[in-house]
Amino acid sequence: MLPANKLPETLLDLDAIRDQFPSLAETDNGSPRLYFDNPAGTQVSRRVVERMSECLLHGNANIGGYFKTSELAGALVDDARSAMADFFNAPSTDEVIFGQNMTSLTLHMSRSIGRYLKAGDEIVLSRMDHDANVEPWVLLARDHNLKIRWLPFDTDSFEFDLSIFDEILSERTRLVCVGGASNLTGTINDIKSICAKARDVGAWSYIDAVQSAPHIATDVQDLGCDFLVCSAYKFFGPHQGILWGRREVLEGLDPYKVRPAPKELPWCFEPGTQSHEGLVGTGAAVDYFAEIGAALAGTRAGTRREQIVTAFEHLFEYEKSLAAQLIAGLNDIPGIIVQGITSPDAFDRRVPTVSFTHSSQRPEVIAEALAGRNIFVWNGHNYGLEPAKALGLLESGGVVRIGIVHYNTSGEIDTTLNALEDILN
Ligand SMILES: Cc1ncc(COP(=O)(O)O)c(C=O)c1O
Question: Which atom of ligand 1 is nearest to the CA of 382?
Answer without folding.
Answer: 14
